[in-house]
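thought: fold this chain, then report.
action: predict
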Amino acid sequence: MLQQTQVSRAQHAWSSLLADLPNPAAAAAAGQADIVRRWEGLGYNRRAVGLYRAAVAMVEHHDGTVPDSLPELLALPGVGPYTARAVLAFAFEHDVAVVDVNVARVISRAVAGRPLSAAILQRTADGLVGEGDGWRHNQALLDHGALVCTARTPSCEGCTLRRSCAWRRGGSTAPDPAATTAGTSRPQSRFEGSQRQARGAVLTLVRGGPADAAAIEALRRRHGEARIDAAIDALGAEGIVGRLDGTVLLVDR
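observation:
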């Protein structure tokens, strides 16, 4: 849920989902459609599909438990380098580096003082983790990037790394190394009138049940026929929605 989503938006959904689906077996038994419904308001609904498919894989291949090795985690549907390492660091307290947009910003500025590729960024981050310190180190670095070394207005004067910061030692002059480092965020396109808005409108509709032709036509009038049809096609290709007897509905597995 925290991939590209603020904690404040994820908290309620996370608590609710864990209360009802506390383990992979429960999530797998609930079905994909149920998890997509619970994902309302979080965006990036492919993550909900990935969560369901990962739960199924854990039941089928790991006796319903979460694996604790990087290769096994990366083999799960929907799990990439960030999520896999976050699970290893925070669930199993392994000495691996969790690299998100905030960590990428801190490392490119304070440690390297220059833009970094994804491979060098991960390798540099891994080298900073002390033995037996993975959980605490990652918590500190994630918070530092989110609260101090921010994207637009970093609090350099109050930063605990200011004396050793490579970018600051160079005068903190433009260009900001974080701006072109792999994994740092780019400005998102306008939501109003976008394809993201059309996808959201379709999912909001079908979360309440199958949408008939009249309901889809109403969406077309509101958001544009081509945009809604493209959204349905894209969601269908991702395995999130399907068509049945003239309706559009959430795919359940």
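thought: worth noting. The longest strand covers residues 241-244.
final: tokens above.
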